[in-house]
């Protein structure tokens, strides 16, 4: 389904006056506003191909209808999001859930929507029907070399799929670990995983990155072989300069200081990118910024400080990806909300008075340092984010337009009420 530009123009026209009023607040700080708007325009967030259908829990799944039935329809959905917000210009594929059987045609289709392909994700946490050996006891860590080889071959195949589409990174997330004390020799599991990752690393094209995603728990609940940023950092350091750590916000033990983890990884040149989402308890995969927006802001605060110190381009040096799913919301509405929340956190963090903050820190003026951060966090930057969209042809209020055009009903009309997407 294509969104015609008239719908966007009409929507924007009817809201233009109210928008300009809100924007006039920035009249005294035009320079700051302009710099922020430009950075927002450049900032693109990749949509996961596995989050376009209604997510479920292990207790059930309540499909919402009109879900994309194949990769082509998933690309169309991301194209729709991008047409609405002009900030979702990339898609991240999970293989084998979304195999591009005709990569040329898929690339062409994505190009029509202005979409690029971000990191490709491998899957050695499930057994596929055509697979000869089981991952029940792990993949890259497995005691049986043949299972390890099967998982290595799969990852290399995923790289090849990505190459055909113009991806530049492979994300490896492993469910490997153990469920009970005594089950696993930790040292052997680490070494086998490192050796297996080394074989995958050797198959990376020269301009590719490998993202090693860590997770503290689930599906293994006693130990995870890539369980925290420390172990991911170790793997990435031992593998070489093309390997980085990927931070999924939901993959920490409760109350972990993620912004500090981000600062240290960035300083070591080993931060690869993000899977944005939010959580109250564990890997809840909720809408970004829906539970802890201040944490999201603090993460961006560290990102901007660290990236600027290292001369890194905000838009292109790291992988900015969402990894969320929801079982009670329309996935497209959920994703629009996530993108907006990420942009808001980014814009607020751009407003932090860094000179004053450093001064306060050097003087151990704790209250002042907090004031500076919270002043930026409490600033309403929604008009700046809307203005950024407006300037590049997006909608002032993407979610409102999506609703007023009855997009979900249209998708149900096209695809059927029982259309269910592949994924988790
Ligand atoms: C694991 C994870 C990982 C997978 C995705 C489906 O919890 O975050 O990124 O690839 O979920
Ligand atoms: Mn993830
Ligand atoms: Mn996860």
UniProtKB/TrEMBL annotation:
Signal sequence range: none
Keyword Isomerase carried by entry: yes
One Gene Ontology term of the molecular function aspect: metal ion binding
Record key words, sorted: Isomerase, Manganese, Metal-binding
Keyword Isomerase: yes
Top-level taxon of the source organism: Bacteria
Protein name: L-rhamnose isomerase / sugar isomerase
Native organism: Spirosoma endophyticum
Origin organism lineage: Bacteria, Pseudomonadati, Bacteroidota, Cytophagia, Cytophagales
